[in-house]
Design brief:
DNA Primase, Chain A, five-stranded mixed sheet, 9 helices, binds zinc ion, 339 residues, elongated
Length: 339
Amino acid sequence: MKELSDYLLAIRTAGSPPGPPGVKTVDVTPEDDTGDITAAAIAGLRRSGLTPADFRSRAIFMAPDDPICLVPYAMLCGFAGRRIDAYAGDTVMEFSRLDPQGHAFPDAGRPSGHLMWAQAGGPNTPDAVGMPTVRLAPGTPRLATPETVTVIRYAARLRMVPPPATRDVLAMFLLIAAIRRRSDDRFAYLSTGTEPAPVIKDDPTQGIDLEKIRRAAVDHRRQQRAARRSAEVVDRVPVSAHEQRIAQANRADIAQVLTRLGSTADPAGRWHCPRPIRHANNDGNPSLILYGDNRVRCQRCDTEKIGPVRLIIDALGLTPDEAAALIADSTRTLGPRVV
Ligand SMILES: [Zn+2]
């Protein structure tokens, strides 16, 4: 059994318990001003500065005591490309160790007709209007009957009614995702308790579409990777106009870029990181070293030396082209980044 202190990264959202002492803690609270729950969640992820590489170390989600915690949790699983351990009800839940396959659960065969919508919940979940309802007993997933597995596996869309305890919410969510898995886990809709009978497959009134959030996080990961690759274009002969702009921007003096980002150097020549939000004390003790090849590396934020474009991309959450344009326009201030 793992304990909280075994983790190297704790991820919080609104209402989460505090991260364990001494463990790097990052906040992905959704930004609430967009009206679009998926966009708000991804905006919170972007602001957190998390990268896929952060999930190579032992990471744990600090779950607040509310079923809405499935929104950031689904996003983090999509972004990491795997199930993430969670802390709920004073317990570490090692979901990342679960067998990824769900086909261990036998079903009773495909349903005879097309099943558009179904609902799954705990033992006390009432029947839904316009769709079959199946019930799972918390804590005993192996007791799912073949008839229940058939409904969960083959329904085109599944709405999950969360049980009362957050631990059971997370366990049921992942059990359903595993049973529905194809090449990836497939996430359910989260019921908010006010849904009418559904009439269409992608019905926006059927609660919160957690699969849509998962996919948006997968897309965000791809965009981050593409941005990093694109920003690497500095050492070889650039061919496209795009690459020329990036290469030109990478020749900008990195100390000036740091200054424009609001960073300052201490007398020993170490710089305060322009991504203070990722540092426990806003990088009060400078962590960033400037190298002679016009690159920098922050001991906390960077796994390798990076140049001006990647620094701007990472600090301000921009695309490579946006970063290059900002560097080229010396009249525009770049920061400092709002903490
Ligand atoms: Zn840093």
